[in-house]
Amino acid sequence: MGASARAAHAAGGRVVGIMPAFLRSRERLFDEVETIVVTSMHERKQLMYDQSDAFVVAPGGVGTLEEVVELLSWKRLDLHSKPVIFLNIDGFWDTFFALMRHSVETGFTPPSFLDAWLVCDTVEAAITMLGTAEATPELKHDRR
Q1: Which helix (DSSP H) or strand (DSSP E) does residue 74 occupy?
Q2: DSSP count for the chain of H helices, then E strands
Q3: In angstroms, rounded to a whole number, what is the distance separating the alpha carbons of residues 40 and 18?
Q4: Helix or strand or coil: residue 65?
Q5: Most CB contacts within 10 A, which of 38, 83, 137, 138?
Q6: Is the dihedral of CA 39, 64, 132, 81 positive or negative?
Q7: What does the pLDDT look like over 83-96, one tens digit per residue?
Q8: pLDDT (tens digit per residue) in 8-26
Q9: Alpha carbon 6 to chain centroid distance?
Q10: Residue 84: its H or E element
Q11: At what angle are helices 41-50 and 62-76 packed, to 10 degrees?
Q12: Residue 92 carries which DSSP code?
């Protein structure tokens, strides 16, 4: 995240950091940009969601995985229709997509869920998709 934030800032983009107070002493700070300090990870994710028009999911660790699963869960529940774009550099997210397909194949998730995101392989393609991505339609999940 830091490298992306620094590059966006250097290119003249607006960067807003949202950090829980407990992480300020553990993380490398980027004080050159606006930073909002919140009390919890839940508040952080909600604020990031509220201030976003779309989401690009870059390769990452367990924190990225946790955030995107919650974001997709909200989408599955029709709580939002904002575009979600996976940056699948070198096939990083392929196993995640296989898990999502497996969840559909075993009947735990409706097939329409597989339309909840877009995939691209390069940063340039992600930027292009951001310019053309539309909100996804309701997923029309089953109402069990």
Answers
A1: helix 62-76
A2: 5, 5
A3: 10
A4: helix
A5: 83
A6: negative
A7: 999 999 999 999 99
A8: 878 888 878 888 888 776 7
A9: 18
A10: strand 84-87
A11: 60
A12: T
Q: What is the DSSP letter of 90?
A: G
pTM exceeds 0.85 for this model: no
DSSP 8-state secondary structure symbol assigned to residue 17: E
**Amino acid (one-letter) located at 142:** D
Return mean pLDDT, the chain: 86
Q: 119-123: list long-range contacts, CB under 8 Å, 24+ apart.
A: 119/85, 119/86, 119/88, 119/93, 120/85, 120/86, 120/87, 120/88, 121/87, 121/88, 121/89, 122/87, 122/89, 123/87
Q: Enter the tokens of residue 122.
A: 């390069």
Q: What is the spatial distance between Cα 78 and Cα 138, in angstroms, rounded to a whole number? A: 6
Question: What φ, ψ does residue 37 adopt, rounded to 5°?
Answer: -100, 125
Tokens at residue 138, please?
């309701």
Q: What gap in Å lies between CA 16 and CA 9, rounded to an integer? A: 10
Both tokens assigned to 132? 């053309």
